TrEMBL record:
Organism of derivation: Plantimonas leprariae
Protein name: 2,3-bisphosphoglycerate-dependent phosphoglycerate mutase
Lineage summary: Bacteria, Pseudomonadati, Pseudomonadota, Alphaproteobacteria, Hyphomicrobiales
This protein's encoding gene: gpmA
A Pfam entry, by short name: His_Phos_1
EC class of the enzyme, as a word: isomerase
SMART domains: PGAM
Length: 205
């Protein structure tokens, strides 16, 4: 009855590499991202973890990351894909180079859109909006699998995972917007029977 939840932000994507706002667009992993995903799988394997189920988003970069991790683990587990785990929708910023966006709207405004908790870019989502779809999905679909004693692997995105970590770690809006999530670095949670966090370990270095 280990009740273990492992969260992994997808490896670097082609658009991460080009400094573009990605959101719900669907680029695949870069060469570096492929290696990051494989390394994540090896780090999880070193912990001796096996999984009963896995979850990912509807976007290729997260699905590819999950596939590569499972290959490294030598495991084939039932996988659920759901739009609730997608990256934050950046709206009108999607596809723009971050430097070009700063030139168009100003550095301060773009910083507000990127790093505030509840202010969304035009046509897009805030982190709070992202959480509004991530949290119910976690409570109804992922958490029960963990609390039943299973080990669950989730490959998703910087902001969908940030919203989930906010809830798990009990962080304030100010604390979570300052939290950076590295690509391809597994975060291992062990939960208590009441769903609170018993232990958290970041598998890096």
């Amino acid at each position: 009855m280990t009740r273990t939840l492992v969260l992994v932000r997808h490896g670097q994507s082609d658009w991460n590499l080009k400094n573009l706002f990605t959101g719900w667009k669907d680029p695949d992993l870069s060469e570096k991202g492929v290696e990051e995903a494989r390394l994540a799988g090896r780090r999880i394997r070193e912990r001796g973890l096996s999984f009963g189920t896995a979850f990912t988003s509807e976007l290729t970069r997260a699905q590819h990351t999950l596939k590569l991790m499972l290959e490294e683990l030598g495991q084939d587990v039932p996988t659920t894909r759901n739009i609730a785990l997608n990256e934050r929708d950046y709206g009108d910023l999607t596809g723009l180079n971050k430097d070009d966006a700063r030139a168009k709207w100003g550095e301060e405004q773009v910083h507000v859109w990127r790093r505030s908790y509840d202010i969304a870019p035009p046509g897009g989502e805030s982190l709070r909006d992202t959480g509004a779809r991530v949290w119910p999905y976690y409570i109804h679909h992922i958490q029960p699998k963990v609390l039943s004693g299973g080990n669950v692997l989730v490959a998703a995105h910087g902001n969908s995972l940030r919203a989930l970590i906010m809830a798990l770690d009990g962080l304030t809006p100010d604390e979570i917007v300052a939290r950076e999530l590295a690509t391809g670095v597994p975060i291992v949670y062990r939960l208590n029977e009441d769903s609170t966090v018993a232990e958290k370990t970041v598998l890096e270095g």
